[in-house]
Design brief:
Strands 1, 2, 3, 4, 5, 6, 7, 8, 9 and 10 form a ten-stranded mixed beta sheet that branches. The chain has 273 residues and is α/β, with parallel strands linked by helices. Helix 4 (65-72) links the parallel strand 2 and strand 3 (76-81). It contains eleven helices and ten strands. Bound molecules: S-adenosylmethionine (SAM). S-adenosylmethionine binds at residues 12, 16, 20, 25, 29, 59-62, 65-66, 81-83, 86, 102-103, 119-121, 124-125.
């Protein structure tokens, strides 16, 4: 179901809206090596979430890639996203209600969800104050004791990806990544493949959770080192090898020395009771 309220609160950057209006997000996690991010997110969330039925708010939920299976698992899923195409796509999914909105000013009642997911907004908010504001909104709308899970892109994900794709050997990719590593800021004007984003060090999200008065339960590296291996796409096509990759990634998901090797990191915390 799609609710046609207009996006409220602070404006989302034009280039971010234009990037997602291209309509490529819906297929991203369904193919190639990005399937690892999808399966690992699902694997971690299935262990962290309370039993269904529980109410989940999927903030920055995109076209509903996770909302879809969460609804199928029996959760009551509402999705908020600033991109009209995503709201329309997610709103067509069975059991999912989708509406326009921004993570920094959620169109939602206080203490009205058991779980708030932020699997996207934090890395599209380059300013720390905006990320803390988004986490503060998650705290407001989740019930006391409820779960908040946020995804960040790791600071060196761009460097690792460029090396893996052999693009780091040439400019402008190399110059872009070298700049990105300094401050974490990925600027779309730099000709990269992504849009404006912030690539965080693993310690940043827990600090931002605490500033937003959320406690931190733990962090989970999603792709480990497997996403950097040359054979990863073929391994994910083979059910036995895929399972082995998922098990291997699970083994190291909380290993502090390896958290930053993953492309994506989940930080899980709670609103204090
Ligand atoms: C890479 S997609 C991730 C989609 C999905 N959550 C997933 O995990 O695959 C990032 C999403 O964040 C959304 N987004 C960007 N800025 C946002 C903001 N300020 N508030 C809420 N969502 C935002 C985008 O529209 C997009 O759908």
């Amino acid at each position: 179901m799609t609710e046609t309220t207009r996006a409220q609160g602070p404006a989302v950057r034009e280039e971010i809206l234009a990037y997602y209006a291209r309509g490529e997000e819906d297929g991203r996690l369904r193919q190639g090596s990005d399937r690892l991010e999808f399966w690992r997110t699902q694997d971690v969330l299935r262990r962290l979430l309370p039993d269904a039925p529980a109410k989940v708010l999927d903030v920055g939920g995109g076209s509903g890639i996770h909302a879809e299976w969460l609804a199928r698992d029996g959760y009551g899923v509402e999705l908020v996203d600033p991109v009209p195409l995503h709201v329309e796509q997610a709103g067509r999914l069975p059991g999912v209600t989708a509406r326009a909105g921004d993570a920094r000013a959620l169109p939602a009642e206080d203490a009205s969800y058991d779980v708030v997911l932020l699997l996207g907004p934090l890395y599209h908010l380059p300013e720390r104050a905006d990320r803390v504001r988004a986490l503060g909104e998650a705290r407001r709308v989740v019930r006391p004791g409820g779960l908040v899970v946020a995804a960040t892109i790791n600071r060196f994900a761009g460097l690792h990806d460029m090396l893996r794709q052999e693009l780091y050997f040439t400019d402008p990719h190399r110059a872009l990544v070298d700049r990105e590593m300094e401050e974490g800021r990925h600027d779309s004007e730099d000709g990269g493949h992504f849009t404006t984003a912030y690539f965080a060090q693993p310690h940043e999200a827990p600090e931002e959770f605490e500033e937003a008065a959320l406690t931190v339960d733990g962090q989970y590296g999603l792709e480990g080192v497997a996403w950097l291996m040359g054979g990863i796409e073929d391994w994910l096509d083979d059910p036995d090898r895929r399972e082995a990759v998922l098990v291997a990634s699970r083994h190291i998901e909380r290993e502090p020395t390896l958290l930053g090797t993953s492309g994506h990191l989940l930080t899980a915390g709670r609103r204090p009771r």
